[in-house]
Amino acid sequence: MTEARLAPGARIGIIGGGQLGRMLALAAARLGLSCHIFTDREDDPAIEVAANATVARYDDEKALAVFAAAVDVVTYEFENIPARTAEFLAAMKPVRPSPSVLALTQDRLIEKNFISGLGIEVAPYAQVDDAGALARAVAQIGRPSILKTRRFGYDGKGQALVREGSDLAVAFRSLGGQPSILEGFVPFVCEVSVVAARGLDGDFVAWDVGRNEHEHHILATTVVPADIGEDVRQRARDKAKRIAEALDYVGVLAVEMFVVETPAGLKLLVNEIAPRVHNSGHWTLDGSVTSQFEQHIRAVCGFPLGVTRAHGPVEMHNLIGDDVYRWREFLEVPGACLHLYGKAEARPGRKMGHVTILKGAK
Ligand code: AMP
């Protein structure tokens, strides 16, 4: 049986081979750990920087068993891993965060029930299993509202806006008639996220809160600290802490929130939990004492967590699609740190890299 606490030289298995896996593998290497990527795509960007890789389907139990035998701990860099895969691996090696966290965050309804069960406010929502339930949900929640599939939604996929005059049967069919939820449309002043970590001993740390701007449903920019006041930022971190503790979480997580203006001041509604390192935490690579990637590796290995202090105000800009061709321009900006993911093809909407701009740097 593997020790709960690992040491340099240990082997970390990462499910998924995208840019998050790549940056995790780079951070692990710096701590004298080696990574083994398990992915179903042979051209994934994590592969070229990791010590080992297995390319196989996520339900290939023979390949999963060989992978599990070759590593000391398993973690993941995307959340849509089949539940059976996570459980199969967990029977052989520690999986951190646990498969139960994965199951909870894979289903928007279960996730929302969990968050509101903690007494943390979310947008009004209702379960929608068929077109009739959608009509009842719209009568309860009103318009505008957003229909979201319970599973496999990301970057705005699996969502339909229900406005005045929208045909409900058409909206339900547009999402493939899948089990969904209807959420009230939140007139937010901005969106923020808390990136935080919880260690094997239950210690909790969080970075300062970032304000996130999206374009075409894809994160474009994160500005840290979010300009919502220290008091609201602290409340946001407290919510993330309660969520991490209730999940008995190990690793880095991100909690996305809407900031809403009320007569009593700014209010936070939790939108969703990402059980992994997150795009809105990329700024920590250059802008903080400990990056989210190093922190995740520390946590899943049972190492002490690092300090999350920021070096100063910072902005992170994603390079999406053709933006990547401006790489030379970014290299010339004082205080700009360029990260490219090594992806061969710059397709529209594809995250190709990011630039962190340290506002205090000369
Ligand atoms: P999600 O997949 O839930 O993170 O949603 C993607 C994006 O859609 C969010 O970052 C928001 O910009 C927007 N969005 C999602 N849910 C709502 C909501 N209830 N009200 C307003 N905007 C929303």
Q: What's the CATH class label of the largest domain?
A: Alpha Beta
What's the average pLDDT? 96
User: DSSP helix count?
Assistant: 11
Helix-and-strand structural type: alpha+beta
Query: Which hetero compounds are present in the coordinates?
Result: adenosine monophosphate
Regions with little confidence, pLDDT below 50 for 5+ residues: none
What's the total number of strands? 17
Secondary structure: helix percent: 25-40%
* Shape annotation: globular
Distance from N terminus to C terminus (CA atoms, Å) equals 50 Å
Second rung of CATH, namely the architecture of the largest domain: 2-Layer Sandwich
Largest sheet features? 9 strands, antiparallel
How would you name the CATH homologous superfamily of the largest domain?
ATP-grasp fold, B domain
CA radius of gyration is 20 Å
Model description:
By secondary structure, the chain is an alpha+beta fold. It is globular and about 60 Å long. It has eleven helices and 17 strands. Helix content is 28%, strand content 29%. It folds into three domains: 11-95, Rossmann fold, CATH 3.40.50.20; 124-184, Dna Ligase, domain 1 (2-Layer Sandwich), CATH 3.30.1490.20; 190-358, D-amino Acid Aminotransferase, Chain A, domain 1 (2-Layer Sandwich). The strands form three sheets. Strands 9, 10, 11, 12, 13, 14, 15, 16 and 17 form a nine-stranded antiparallel β-sheet that branches. The model has no long low-confidence stretch (mean pLDDT 96). Helix 1 crosses helix 10. Bound molecules: adenosine monophosphate. Adenosine monophosphate (AMP) binds next to strand 14.
